[in-house]
Amino acid sequence: MKNPQMNREQPLQKPLEHVAFWQFMCFLLLICFVWAAEIVDLKHLLYGTPHEPADWLKASLITAGIIAVCIVTVGHTYLQKKRILRGFIIVCSYCKKVQIENSAWQQMEAYVSDRTLAEFSHGVCPSCYDRIIKELDDDKNTAHS
């Protein structure tokens, strides 16, 4: 029996594919609405305007515009997906460089910045700060001795 909690987590694992799918579906619905408006003459049905014959050229041009916007929008979503790091990243235990090829290594900050929209700033955590202060005090005390 499948775990129902796992099914709920599926969209969260690939959020941008989920967004791109719904973007595409909305554009498809918009195209359907354009053609339905031309075929059924929605202006006549909804507002009581005089009946107009279907304007196939206008509907085709609007559809072409919607498709162009759809390609740009959904394409942009998939390009953003490429900016998400996935898989295993091999990190040196000592210098924290990242292996980018079999024999090539790169600083972690540069690796992440090149592949994502993240930017780095450095700070000192409280435990490292305490350790460094203790080391500096020990060095100062040994120098005065």
Describe this structure in words.
- By secondary structure, the protein is mostly helical.
- The chain folds into 2 domains: 15-82, no CATH class; 87-134, no CATH class.
- It has 6 helices and 2 strands, in the order ααααββαα.
- The protein has helices at 4-13, 15-40, 42-47, 56-82, 108-115, 126-144; strands at 97-99, 105-107.
- The protein has a two-stranded antiparallel sheet with strand order 1-2.
- Strand 1 and strand 2 (105-107) form a beta hairpin.
- Helix 2 (15-40) runs antiparallel to helix 4 (56-82).
- The longest helix has 27 residues, at 56-82.
- It starts with a helix and ends with a helix.
- Mean pLDDT is 82; it is low at 1-12.
How far apart are the first and last residues' alpha carbons, in Å? 72 Å
Question: Whole-number average pLDDT?
Answer: 82
What is the alpha-carbon Rg in Å? 29 Å
β-strand percent reads under 5%
Instruction: Work out the count of structural domains.
Output: 2
Low-confidence stretches: 1-12
Share of helical residues = 55-70%
Side-by-side strand order of the widest sheet:
1-2
Largest sheet: 2 strands, antiparallel
Structural class based on helices, strands and sheet pairing: mainly alpha
From N to C, what is the helix and strand string?
Answer: HHHHEEHH
User: How many beta-strand elements?
Assistant: 2
